[in-house]
Here is the input.
Amino acid sequence: GNSVTQMEGPVTLSEEAFLTINCTYTATGYPSLFWYVQYPGEGLQLLLKATKADDKGSNKGFEATYRKETTSFHLEKGSVQVSDSAVYFCALSDWGGSEKLVFGKGTKLTVNP
Amino acid sequence: GAVVSQHPSWVICKSGTSVKIECRSLDFQATTMFWYRQFPKQSLMLMATSNEGSKATYEQGVEKDKFLINHASLTLSTLTVTSAHPEDSSFYICSARGFASGFNNEQFFGPGTRLTVL
Here is the structure.
């Protein structure tokens, strides 16, 4: 079955540091890939997505590239801010419309001033 | 963006009682709602998918008589945990998907409900 593996946290960085959160997946066919973010006390929000190989999703300075050859979708940001502190979830769906999302375990990021 | 609320945000109940959790789409009509549960340090696991006016579709291993889902309107779905036991203690999250243009079939998530069964 489909599965998502993401790096375990927690991750603690200083402001303006470079961020990478690794995500790899196992899936049949050609899934769509997503990153969700959950800020304290709020619901998950879609951060970015990619629907086919070599697509790059980007939003709010975050980027992730759909790498079919390595089955990866790593999240990166060049300079994190305190406001980026949240839990980040990598997810996949067999269908581009985010039907039946399969999630990773989540990675908690804390950014210190 | 679209907003989804859940009520209550946390609940403590005695073993053997039933608990109802509400999920509402506040500013859009949700044709489909999803229910997930999350154990500590684990990923969200889809429990069931419900379409307005029809019976929910449960994922393999989820007891439909234990977790009753009702999606009676385009803005409200409820999850009732019947005869709750301590092993049902978990974080329950709903999401909603609307048919309005511009949403691109995206799921919008509620903030979750923490259930503790004593």
